[in-house]
Specification:
The chain has twelve helices and eleven strands. With 324 residues, it is of the alpha/beta class. The strands form three sheets. A six-stranded mixed sheet has the order 7-6-8-5-9-11. A three-stranded parallel sheet has the order 2-1-3. Helix 2 runs antiparallel to helix 9.
Length: 324
């Protein structure tokens, strides 16, 4: 009889609906299933759920379900989305973020950590001035070029190639300088554009290339590593300000934890996914980075001339390349 009562009680508990979170928050991003973006966002969501004791649920929506990058930036301000994970598009929010569009300015993740430690107030101020709050940094990663025309060894090999870029002015200028025909386009539209020949190629980290299956519609991968793009765990200033101090601290802690997870995951994917791309039959070559660095000088000169405080930004970031 006692066993029957216990069994009945357990069955009743299992039949009860799970306790709903006190607060639900939406996190939208453009990453496909299997992408570094997805892993990053899921890690952050799990951390918030855990550290809040289940009181806050972060619901994640990938593959541009809640909008493309620029739409997500707008929805953050409207309060329709609580978090987003923009990357290159942040250079359209403020010229300050354009410093990360300078070719080869970030050497490795340790360098990025030093830049973050020394300059985060500058980036946070630029975000705040435009109605946003950076909860923390993650990454998109080191970018490489794929295309269907030819292997890219030097900048002149890009001559005439129609290359998709994100919606950032400095990325466009960079590839124009290299001789390509840059075509800004939302990430979610790239696969079809490659498949149909609307564009010849694109540039992204391995994690974005492989998860979006670009290897299925591209012949060549050229390892250029031309830009390292951080990603920003971003909310609006209003959304962040209305949280209690404890919740703000918890969100910030989770973003910091997620950055560590993301860096480790990204480093592993750089090895694993290059194999995936090669195994798909894509021809891979190491580009002449010295030639690209030489061809990039006018981009730095343009940024220094056109952006208020641009030269100081460049000098500060480059000065942090070596640890003291």
């Amino acid at each position: 009889m006692k066993k029957t009562l216990i069994a009945t009680a357990v069955a009743s508990m299992l039949a009860m609906p799970a306790m709903a979170a006190d607060v639900t928050m939406k996190f939208g991003h453009v990453g496909a299933p299997g992408s570094l973006f997805e892993a990053t966002v899921n890690n952050f969501a799990a951390c918030v759920g855990d550290k809040s004791g289940g009181k806050i649920e972060v619901q994640t929506f990938g593959s541009s379900q809640l909008g493309k990058d620029k739409e997500l930036l707008q929805k953050l301000k409207l309060g329709q989305v609580d978090f987003a994970l923009p990357s290159s598009v942040m250079s359209s929010v403020s010229d300050v973020f354009g410093v990360f569009e300078m070719p080869y300015i970030i050497k490795d993740r340790d360098h990025m950590r030093r830049v973050q430690g020394a300059m985060m107030d500058k980036f946070q101020g630029a975000a705040n001035d435009n109605g946003y709050h950076i909860v923390g940094l993650a990454e998109n990663g080191f970018r490489h070029i794929t295309n269907n025309t030819r292997p890219i060894n030097k900048p002149e090999d890009l001559e005439g190639i129609k290359l998709r870029t994100p919606n950032g002015a400095w990325r466009v200028k960079m590839f124009q300088q290299y001789g390509a025909n840059p075509t800004p386009m939302s990430f979610s539209d790239v696969f079809t554009a490659l498949q149909t020949g609307v564009i010849d190629g694109q540039e992204n980290p391995y994690a974005q290339i492989a998860s979006a299956k670009f290897q299925e519609v591209q012949k060549y991968l050229s390892i250029t590593g031309h830009v390292y793009t951080p990603a920003y765990i971003l909310t609006s200033s209003k959304t962040f300000a209305k949280q209690s101090a404890d919740v703000q601290a918890m969100l910030t802690d989770c973003a910091n934890d997620t950055q560590t997870f993301t860096y480790e995951k990204a480093a592993q994917l750089e090895t694993d996914l290059l194999t995936v791309i090669k195994d798909a039959g894509v021809e891979v070559n190491e580009a002449d980075k010295a030639a690209f660095i030489e061809a990039s000088k006018p981009i730095y000169e343009g940024f220094a001339a056109e952006v208020d405080g641009g030269q100081e930004l460049i000098d500060t970031v480059m000065g942090l390349a070596q640890s003291s």
